[in-house]
Amino acid sequence: MSLSASCGSARQKRSLSSLLDSHSLKRPKPLRDGQRLQEAAIQLLEQQQDLCSLFKEIGTRHDPSNPINSTGEEQRKEVSEGISSDVEGSLLVFGLRRQARQLAVPLATLSVKLVLERLREITGSEDNDREMLTAPQSVKLCALLESAKELLTHGCLCPKLLWQEYRKYHKLPKLDVVYQLHLNDVLTLKDILKSDEGVRLWLVPQLKALCSWTPPQEDKETMQAQQKVMSGIVGLLVSFGFQSSQEPAAMEKRDFLLCTSALDAMLFWFLDTVDTTSTQKLCETATDRWCQLFADVSTYPDVNQRFFMHSLTQTLTYKPRLTVSDAISLQNKWTFEKASRLLTSLFRKLSVIFSVNQLLRHLQQVLETHEVNWKHVLCFLSTLLVYNPSAQPSLRELLSRLLTSAFEGYDLESMITAFLLARQGALQGPAIFPSYCDWFKECFGGASGFHATSKKSLVFLLKFLSDLVPFEPPQYLKVHILHPPYVPVKYRSLLMEYVSLAKTRLADLKESVEEMGLYGDVSGAEAAPVQCQAVQDVDKAVSLFESTGRLSATVMEASIFRRSYFLTRFLPTLLKPKVLPVKADAQMSFIEALKKADKIPAAQYSAYVGSCQRLRQQERNAVRVDNHDHPLQLLEVQLQELVEHVVDGSEGDMSAQLSKVSHTLGFIFPGLPTDALEKEVIQLQTGTPQFSELHMKVVNVILRRFCQCILDSSQVLSPNKQMTWASRFVSVFACNIQLLSCLLHRLWDLLHNQGSLLSGPHLLGLAAFVVHLHASTLQSPLVHLASLCPAKPVPISEALSSALVCSTQTNMLFCVRFCMAAVSYGICRGDSLTQPQKDLIPSSFYKKLQYLIPRLLPEARRTAGSKEAGIQETDSFGLWSNAKDSSSHWKKTAWCLWRHPAFSQLLQAPQYQLFFTEWLAIESQVERSKDALTDSERLEYHQWACLHLYLTAPDNEGGCGGSMKSIFFHLIHAIMDQQSSEKSQKDHTISQRGTCLPDIICILQEVVYEMDLTPLAVSHQSRADVCDFLFELASERFSGSLTEASAQLSCEHTLNTWNRVLLALPSVSFIKVKAEEGRRHLDCDKLIQHVNQHQRSVCLPGGLLSCHLTSHFLKGILYASARCSHVGEEFCKIWSLISQQCPLLLVSTVYWWDRMSAAVLSLWCRLSDGATPPEQLQIIASSQHWARSLMGGQLLHVPSAPALLLASSIYEGLQGQQDVHAALSFLEPDKDIKHREVLVFLLFLCVNNYLSALLYPQEKCHQKAIKLCTEVLKVAVDCTDWLLIFKSNAAEKGVYQSVTMVTSDRCDQLMPWAFYSVLLEQSAELHHKVVRRPDFLSAAVCCYIGLQQIFLDGLAISDPPESQILSRSKRFLLSAIPHTPASSSSCRLLTQLQTQCVNVDPEVAAALFAHLNAHTLITGMEFL
Description:
This protein is mainly alpha-helical. About 65% of the residues lie in helices and about 0% in strands.
């Protein structure tokens, strides 16, 4: 009979409670004898009482929903008192044992089954999404666990078996149940951690689920229970994972790691959630709940401290993805105000039990020993400063320690850490920490600064600040310039170099030091606009004057040292005209004080007083406008009346109406006086300018009414017969800077962004408006475009012309229509005698027509302007009629305009000629996929424009004068300028394939091909000129790029652009073929010079030319050799010359030979009709074969090849070699000179590779490179030749002087660095061998002097740190000097080096002096 059957068969019998209840009702008093009660109960059980029901009934005896509890309170009390827990336990134990005997199953198994069945009954009915039990469920569960505890006491229940059986049905146990098991001592969490192998798989997900689950809003009890469960489980994990290992109850290592990993996983989940989904309410609630647990955890104080410190470390070092440069650039976004509330809350809770000094010491330790998340580090510091008033002095002490350490050991890490922490403190405001300006002046502004101890410290500071320049926000650069570090007079040039670099960077950022506010707190936040700064400065200065009665020192200093800002920003803002009050206010008193101090120019003061008086007069004689009329409504009425007067032709009424319009606009736009605008420059923002709604509406009304007026008046009279109303209308606002600025911004937006939406009348009206703006250039200010134009201000028409782009078909069609309307209106208007046409027609619009009409109208290409013998349009009014006739197609208008005599006459003026360079600049920006021309049409157009129009046009008209060299230069310059232009670098939406650049390259190739086929004659340019032209142009471009401060970066960018052009041209173009004495031979001098001078300077990483470039040069030599009489002989001759004079091309060819040999040999077969490859190519192949055999453990006969070629072959083979030492051990440098030279060259290539890996860590692994250097050095150490490659003078390198032409100049300068960097990584045994070499000491001292110079010049590599390699090199050299043998010849050299060391390092000089004296004494004793 099974257990389930037994339980089910007795379900209908009366329960024990009902029996007891009925008996109690019949007896006059409750039964008090417990023994008798127990016997009675057992007797009942023996009468088939159901065990499952008994178990359930005991668990629900205290349940309020139990029907038994409906009896009276007295009866419930009697029953409760009558049945004790001991009786219940005895009954259960007796029943379980009896049942177990009947079923023949273990007692523990039966107990577990019954407990789990009851547990499932309690928890199984609820929704699985609910993470917490309901209140009735919790009561039942507690009663069940009390019974289970009784069974556990009597030895009837096995906790481990209970958990195993529970886990079979619950893959993800509810934490509520787990915690109740632990709380009732049925099954502790510690036992679960020990017994459950998969606890990590469910514990963390369940913790996340419990944090993310939110009970119903009205269920407050469940909310409290949820927080209790979470804090209880987390507290247990903290106690288990962070208790002291000395305690006797310490957990095993596995359990310790399990607890800490679970807590770390939850912390990382919290941090990820904060970073990614902080805006979602559900995730914010979950993270808030977890963050609160740090305040609710209650354990021993030392355990809490270890846990909180561990969590703080994990937070500061979590996902250290941001670099130091990122931290410098983004720091102002990580202030306390901008940081996540949850993140700052976490830092507060983690910091509450520690002192500020403890936290800062720990922060310093973390920064020194870990890669950190700079965002978390800086947010933590901000939180610490904001919530701890005592943190400021502690932070200042930490910064002082960091700076002291930085300048003692020249430690960049300490330096950058100090600057980042100081700036972060300053970002919180002066109430929290001093401003960055004050801190910088305090640390470096005086002779007692950290950097003032030596020149080396000064150079270290300035080098550090220079390295920060590319990443610095402009506010910090301004502080460094306006408050520079203290520098002695003799080192002033060093500071000026940094100031120049910083000012250049500010210019690139469109920032000006002169426009920095007087009282601005430079904290790293975004700077306010200049006008706002000036207003703030004026308010601050007036406030200080009002409170002190004196002119502030800041204002007085600015009037002397910052005179430009004082005169152009501060005073104009202060002296802004206004209606002066009767009684002088604080600002008037401040102005008078400045006037008495002679700080205000007399003319400016007089203009101010006059403007104020005029304003007062205007106020008295204000225009009589109805108070109910709005200015905009009044202006609309006045402009409508103006239109009527213009159409009627009444000039007097029109002038009077214009006066009213001008007066009304003066109230809406209170601009400055006319005489103040002569030198004004309007800043045209090409983005979305911020203007008031009223001003924008006024501008729209002005433009709309002007367009209406143009169309209405043109219906009656042609433009040349109309009154001067249009020019006078434009002159009304041409002198109002505010109104004109709004108009220009609106026009820019219409032309650049909304051109396709403009109707015909609007387009014609706006074109006429722009013409009159252009005509008023003399009285209008210049315009400075914020992004699209150079820094030089330009006239209004040119600024608006830049809004008309020609990159797509849509843009071209709008541009040609608008420009046609403007030019047609100007031509028609210019027929009057009052104004010449050239003053009315903007040259920039005329040039766009010169570009667009021939491009879009092929028939226009057959004529030069209107010189075609045919019908010519002479009626200007007809021209304007075609332009304004919306039904006429634009092509008809364009054709009429193109043939008009007035249009052609403008070509005689230089300013109206479209030069070839301008044409190329426009054409290179056209998007091919959106072009109006097809590919074939565009090719035809390009051939016409380049090879017919501009090739034959005279030089003074922007053409090439028939010179192929000129068009050749123009094309290459245009291609390189387009690829290296700022726009092409920033705008990645249009790739190079998307523009017409490939088509222009095709034209260039056609030009080169034509030059190549030009006959060799005295009167013609030979094919060899192409080579000269190319390298002449390259030298010109590189010489221009090297004048910049950032010469290396500029040279790299220029050369990369040049190489793309180079690869697009025929390879044979770079090789000269000369004919002398009836025989042709090759001339590669220009190619060799180009590679050695320019390609070599940027051949990193790897110290090699690229495979494509190497193959291109080699194929060019083969092609050129095929034009000679003796192909193979000429190739071998020129390749031998390259091997001697251009070793970089030789090394690159050998390195890439496996990849390009098939193509090269195939080309040779085609050129030589299948002849045997030339000897030089065979030597390369045999050298490769010899190197591969050497790598395979077999030493063949050494080919008759240069040692550098053999070394390059071995170097290429070593890249994938595992056992390098075994392969190189076959070489015998002591016996074979060739072997020795090969090894030395090989060592150089490895060292060069190591330097490349340090300079470009993203490309190579320097650990692998240093390992390769070590293996080669082990074989080459016994010969002294390897020291020659580290000589600074090329002549001293002997047979190895060609290595200087294999690497870049920077790598050559870093050879002393490489010498010690490689040597310090070797074993003591190898050090002993090296030191015993006779010439080692002189080489080591030379390299040490060079190493010091590298540091002073700022050329050091950051890995390893400068201070580390300097100190280690010095210790190594000092330890090597006594053990180095000295000869008479080396002593003379050492004496010279000892003299040089006196100024570099006196300690090394003293050691050399002692060593030389000891040698002299020994020599003298031997003589005696």
